[in-house]
Amino acid sequence: MRITLHDVSKGKNGQALPPTTLEFHTGEVRYALAETEQRPTVLGLIASGRMRPETGRVTIDDSESAKELRRRVALVDAPDVSDPHPDISLAGVVGEELMFAGLGATPLHAKRWLSQLGYAELASVPIGNIDPSARVRILCELAVLRDGTDAVVLVSPDRHGGSPDGWWRIAAEFAERGFAMLVILGGSAAVALERMQELGAVNASGPVEPLVLEPGADAEPVADAEPEANAAASGFDDGGAARGGALRQAQGPSESDEGEDGVSEPQDWVAEPVEASPAQDPDPDNDTNEDDPNGAAS
């Protein structure tokens, strides 16, 4: 499956989203850079078929079917659209998504599902207090439970903090499992990912080695530095960041919420996908309004 955004934009003079072209496809994870408060969510809604662009078009395997996009693409953790309320317990979030997936959704079912994933101890913790990588892992695993989900659009995982290599590795794992993955993030996270790739810290084809920065040419080596200290100085953890969260699709903003007013002027903004390596709405067949995020979501 190949999803392509052809010069799409949203809002007056592209204020909500400047003209953007990108592509993501099965078996790959790519990122798109989107700054300001609204643009990540707007880009996610358009890429998943839940909002019509002002200009341009979105295709899935060369077809311009927003209904097909909504059915097959899960929109995960988009602010004010599909992100769970921070005060809801993790078990409550899981139970709701299990229900949408047509599975047992009692508190016991939710706890068993979390236990199978290795997060049983977090069942009663509010999801707003969950580690960023665990959040991404759980929400993405929940999203792909639904039949027909072939792609995931993960919105702004960097806003929760933590090291980018955690949720990036998780996105790569989902790509390796056969999903098309698009991660929408901000400039600081993009710079960190590019630096990590230069140092070999992101490897979508296998285990990720601990990140240890080499001293610069003009820097004197530290004689007794321990490897753990070097890793800490790099700003990245060396191991367990491979656990992250999953996605959840929910309600989207109406056309009136898309931001004609009060949107900051567009900056020099580029949504350029970069390769690395692999919830949905309760009614996937409702195609009454392609601009309404209440329509089907894969």
Molecular structure report:
This protein is α/β, with parallel strands linked by helices. Helix content is 28%, strand content 15%. The strands form two sheets. A four-stranded parallel sheet has the order 3-7-6-5, sandwiched between helices. β6, α6 and β7 form a beta-alpha-beta unit.
Spell out the blueprint of helices and strands.
Elements: E1 2-10, E2 17-25, E3 29-33, H1 39-47, E4 55-60, H2 66-72, E5 73-76, H3 90-100, H4 107-117, H5 132-143, E6 151-155, H6 164-176, E7 180-185, H7 187-198, H8 227-234
Parallel strand pairs: 3-7, 5-6, 6-7
Antiparallel strand pairs: 1-2, 1-4
What is Rg? 19 Å
**Uncertain stretches:** 202-214, 216-284, 292-298
Q: What is the count of helical runs? A: 8
Shape: globular
Strand content: 5-15%
Q: Could you tell me the number of beta strands?
A: 7
Strand order in the sheet with the most strands: 3-7-6-5
Order of helices and strands: EEEHEHEHHHEHEHH
Largest sheet: 4 strands, parallel
In short:
By secondary structure, the protein is α/β, with parallel strands linked by helices. Helix content is 28%, strand content 15%.
Features:
single chain; 298 residues; alpha/beta; 4-stranded parallel beta sheet; disordered C terminus
